[in-house]
Amino acid sequence: MNIKRLIPVLFNSLSNIFPSLAAKIAMELFLTPGSAVRRPEEHELLKTAKEIRFASGCIGHSWGEGPVIFLCHGWGSRGTRFFNLIPKIVEQGYKVVVWDAPAHGFSPGKKTNLTDIAQSLANDLITSNITPVGFVGHSMGGVILGVMQKYHRPLPEKVVIVASPTRIPEVFERFFAMIKLSVKAQNIFTAKVKEETGHTYEDFSLVNCELGKNIQALIIHDTGDSEVPYSDFIALKELWDKSIFVTTEDLGHRRILDDQTVINKIVNYLGKP
């Protein structure tokens, strides 16, 4: 039997008999990012990069000179995933900095969570004396920007959010449904999240963040995104009336980063220094 098909069966049985144990295992699973093989384009890009070792131990890279545009990758990804976007921003006259979050890419660790990532990023920016004039976040990277702005530091005027979940409770609902976790185990899981982070799921949601109400952010999402539903984009659009919302089609959750039209929209939005 395929292991991916077996996991929901095992979780469903375990969570009905031993909900606390099932919740603990589910949390371990959720907080352990997957890893992806770097593409050849990423290895080529790294040959021209300057490595940055941050105070947290996280590893970053930079290209170009000028005001900094900081790129935040998604869950289970890495900074060089922006390989098609990075050169285009550098051509505008910016320095691009990417940062592999804890337990991601070249950075150390096996487990992490939203609060740890946002706190580490905020601290690393301070200790490295990096003050970005713009941020780009893909997927969970966009959520990290919202969490950082809400709890750690204000963001600049230029913020791009691509294919990001905006309602975090629904992220967990989809996860619970995928592994068929019992309601009792779900409640234990949720209580543990609040105990360990001091926050509820709602605290991390972009729909509960003032970011896009105060600046003209650029929000991009594909109608066919199979990982983050388009309805998340619509929910944010109804709240962030100052922001620019762009819809794409047939690009999905990841290919959207490689589309030339999307890249042009981001570069044009950032403008020149």
Structural write-up:
This protein is α/β, with parallel strands linked by helices. The chain has a domain at 47-167 and 205-270: 3-Layer(aba) Sandwich (Rossmann fold). It has helices spanning 3-17, 19-30, 40-46, 86-91, 114-127, 140-151, 168-179, 183-197, 211-214, 230-237, 260-270; strands at 50-53, 59-63, 68-72, 95-99, 134-138, 158-162, 218-222, 244-248. It has an eight-stranded mixed β-sheet, sandwiched between helices. Helix 1 (3-17) runs antiparallel to helix 2 and helix 2 (19-30) packs across helix 8.
Could you outline the blueprint of secondary structure elements for this entry?
Blueprint: H1 3-17, H2 19-30, H3 40-46, E1 50-53, E2 59-63, E3 68-72, H4 86-91, E4 95-99, H5 114-127, E5 134-138, H6 140-151, E6 158-162, H7 168-179, H8 183-197, H9 211-214, E7 218-222, H10 230-237, E8 244-248, H11 260-270
Helix pairs in contact: 1-2, 2-8, 5-6
TL;DR?
The protein is an alpha/beta fold and about 270 residues long. It is about 40% helix and about 15% strand.
Key words describing this protein structure:
alpha/beta
Let me know the largest β-sheet. Answer: 8 strands, mixed
Low-pLDDT windows of residues: none
The CATH superfamily of the domain at 47-167 and 205-270 bears the name Alpha/Beta hydrolase fold, catalytic domain
CATH topology of the domain at 47-167 and 205-270: Rossmann fold
**SS strand fraction:** 5-15%
CATH class of the domain at 47-167 and 205-270: Alpha Beta
Outline type: globular
Name the helix and strand elements from N-terminus to C-terminus, one letter apiece: HHHEEEHEHEHEHHHEHEH
The number of distinct β-strands equals 8
Query: Order of strands side by side in the largest beta sheet?
Result: 1-2-4-3-5-6-7-8
- The proportion of residues forming helix, as a percent range, comes to 40-55%
Q: How confident is the prediction overall: mean pLDDT?
A: 95
Structural class: alpha/beta
Give the name of the CATH architecture of the domain at 47-167 and 205-270: 3-Layer(aba) Sandwich
- Provide the gyration radius in Å: 19 Å
**Euclidean distance between termini CA atoms:** 55 Å
Number of helices: 11
